C-alpha cells in the first residue's frame, strides 16, 4: 500500500509583532530617563546628578547590549542621545529639557510617517520590506500598498502624535517626574500596542485570499 503524503496546512499569515520585535531595545531605552529623574530627585533637584546618573546607566546598558551581541553603532547612538539630552538640560538649567530631544524626535517621526503615506511610500511597508529583504517589491502589490498605508496611520496617531501631546504638555508645565513616568509608559507598552493594532489593521485590509506579507502579488 502506498502511503498518501499528508497535506501540509497552509501557513498562516505572519504577525507584524514577530517581524518587528524590538521590545528589549525599547525597555533599555527607558532606563536612562528613569535614572535621570531618580538622580534628580535624590540629589534635591540637581540636574548635574540626574545627568550623571543617566549617563552612567546608559553606559551600563550599552555594555550589556554589546555583551548580548548588539551592534556597536546602535549602542553609540543610544549613548550619544543620552549625553546630548543631559548637556541640553545642563545648558538650559531646566530639568524638563532632558526630554526635549524625545519630544522633537516624535514630532519629526509623526511628520515623516504622515508624509510617507501621502506620497505612497508608507514607512511601515519600507521597514517590513527591509526586514523581509523585499526591497521595493511590496509597492507593486496594490493590496499590500493599501494595507501598509492604512496601518501606518496607527503609528502616526496612536504612537507619535500621542507622545507629542503628552510629552509636550508635561514639558511645558515643567513636570519632570511625570515626564519620566510618561517616558516609561509610552515606550515599550505603547510600542507593543501600536504593533498589535497596526498588525490587525494590516491583515484586516488585505483581501482574504492574499498570501501574506512575504508574497507580494503583481497587479492584475
From TrEMBL:
Keyword Transmembrane in record: yes
Keyword Transmembrane part of the UniProt annotation: yes
One Pfam family per UniProt: DUF3159
InterPro entries referenced in this protein's UniProt entry, alphabetically: UCP010219
Keywords: Membrane, Transmembrane, Transmembrane helix
Residue intervals passing through the bilayer: 47-67, 74-90, 110-132, 153-173, 185-202
Protein name (Swiss-Prot/TrEMBL): DUF3159 domain-containing protein
Amino acid at each position: 500500500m502506498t502511503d498518501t503524503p499528508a497535506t501540509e496546512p497552509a501557513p498562516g499569515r505572519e504577525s507584524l509583532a514577530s517581524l518587528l520585535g524590538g521590545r528589549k531595545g525599547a525597555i533599555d531605552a527607558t532606563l536612562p530617563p528613569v535614572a535621570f529623574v531618580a538622580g534628580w530627585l535624590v540629589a534635591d533637584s540637581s540636574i548635574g546628578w540626574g545627568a550623571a546618573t543617566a549617563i552612567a546607566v546608559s553606559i551600563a546598558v550599552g555594555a550589556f547590549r554589546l555583551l548580548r551581541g548588539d551592534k556597536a553603532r546602535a549602542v553609540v547612538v543610544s549613548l550619544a542621545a543620552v549625553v546630548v539630552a543631559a548637556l541640553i538640560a545642563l545648558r538650559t538649567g531646566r530639568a524638563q529639557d532632558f526630554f526635549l530631544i524625545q519630544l522633537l524626535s516624535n514630532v519629526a517621526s509623526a511628520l515623516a510617517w504622515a508624509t510617507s503615506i501621502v506620497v505612497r511610500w508608507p514607512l511601515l511597508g519600507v521597514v517590513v520590506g527591509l526586514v523581509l529583504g523585499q526591497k521595493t517589491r511590496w509597492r507593486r502589490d496594490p493590496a499590500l500598498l493599501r494595507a501598509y498605508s492604512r496601518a501606518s496611520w496607527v503609528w502616526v496617531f496612536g504612537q507619535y502624535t500621542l507622545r507629542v501631546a503628552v510629552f509636550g504638555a508635561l514639558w511645558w508645565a515643567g513636570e519632570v517626574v511625570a515626564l519620566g513616568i510618561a517616558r516609561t509608559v509610552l515606550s515599550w507598552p505603547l510600542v507593543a500596542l501600536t504593533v498589535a493594532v497596526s498588525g490587525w489593521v494590516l491583515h484586516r485590509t488585505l483581501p482574504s485570499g492574499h498570501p501574506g506579507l512575504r508574497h507580494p502579488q503583481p497587479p492584475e
